[in-house]
Each structure stands twice: as C-alpha cells, then as structure tokens.
Amino acid sequence: FPVTIDDLEFEFERSENRASPLFGRSILVQGTINGVPFEYFTTMDEFAVELEFEPPVDLTVAGGVSVVVSIDLAAIFNPLQGGVNISGARDGNGNGTIEIHLLDNDGNSALAGLLDDAIWKAIDTIEERWDD
Predict the structure, then answer these.
(1) Please, which residues have CB within 8 angstroms of residue 10's CB and are 6 or more apart in sequence?
(2) How many CA atoms does the CB half-sphere of 91 hold within 13 Å?
(3) Nearest C-alpha neighbor of 101 from the set 52, 45, 50, 38
(4) Confidence (pLDDT) at 97
(5) Rounded CA gap, 128 and 49, in Å?
(6) What are the beta bridge partners of residue 103?
(7) Predicted local confidence at residue 49, as pLDDT
(8) Measured between alpha carbons, how far is 65 from 71 in angstroms, rounded to an integer?
(9) Among candidates 52, 48, 36, 53, which has minimal Cα distance to 90?
(10) Rounded to an integer, what distance in angstroms lies between the CA atom of residue 111 and that of residue 128?
(11) HEC sequence for the chain
(12) Cα dist. 16→7, 44, 48, 66, 111 in Å?
C-alpha cells in the first residue's frame, strides 16, 4: 500500500519508568571528570526534533528509506569545539558524584543551564542541516 511521509518528529519527554535511571528525566549523560563520576541530566519536557521532507517521500517508490539523526556530543561537551567546559564542575555535597542539573546540591546549576542551551543549539543545528 502506498505510504508518503511529509515530516518526521522525534519527541523527548521525561521517563515515567520508575526502574530506569532516566526516571523523571528526559536526557541523562554519565561519565567521569578527572576520574570522578559525573552525571548531567535535564528534565526539559516535551521538546522535539522535526524533519520535513520536501518533496514528500513516497516509500512505495523509494523502497527502503533510512533516516539517521545524530547529535554531535563534542558540540555540547567539548570546549575546543564550541561546547561547554565542565572540567570545573565540583562535587559540592561530597557524595562522590559530580551532579550537573538545574536543582543540584553540588553548585553546578549554571553549568546545567549552559548544557541545556547547548542541547537546544544542537537540535536547531540538526533541523537546519536537514532543511538545507
């Protein structure tokens, strides 16, 4: 049967799965800063990446169509490539994990705001690149 796609939208929202480390969060990044575990998360809710097909894609004619959406993590986390420098983040509450989010107890909420902004910029870049 004929299928035509005009646009494709990926929506992000907070996880409702209580068993998941993502519970109550929409994005979670874990790693280390100078050997100390860190986690950055955001609870930004209901944001989306929308890709529009001009002209619309007819899947009947095209056969297999693949769409790859990639987020450049260097653009978010690597200051040498325009990202946010998180090397100064600290474990302010001394629990052994550097927490970076808007309501953290470690004192890294300003960094969290910068990372949130960098993610929005990355999403805008995806949409702009797609539209070109």
Answers:
(1) 48, 49, 50, 69
(2) 13
(3) 38
(4) 96
(5) 11
(6) none
(7) 76
(8) 20
(9) 36
(10) 25
(11) CCCEEEEEEEEECCECCCCCCCECCCEEEEEEECCEEEEEEECCCCEEEEEEEEEEEEHHHHCCCCCCCCCCHHHHHCHHHCCCCCCCCCCCCCCCCEEECCCCCCCCHHHHHHHHHHHHHHHHHHHHHHHC
(12) 27, 14, 18, 29, 25
Bridge partners of residue 38, in order along the sequence: 31, 98
Do residues 75 and 82 lie in contact, with contact meaning Cβ atoms separated by under 8 Å?
yes
* Amino acid occupying residue 69: V
| Token representation of residue 90 | 């600290």
pLDDT by residue, tens only, the chain of 132 residues:
677 888 888 788 889 999 999 999 988 999 999 999 999 998 877 777 777 877 887 776 655 666 666 778 888 888 998 899 999 999 999 999 999 999 888 999 999 999 999 888 887 777 666 665
The amino acid occupying position 78 is N
pTM here is 0.76
Q: Which residues contact 17 (CB under 8 A, 6 or more apart)?
A: 23
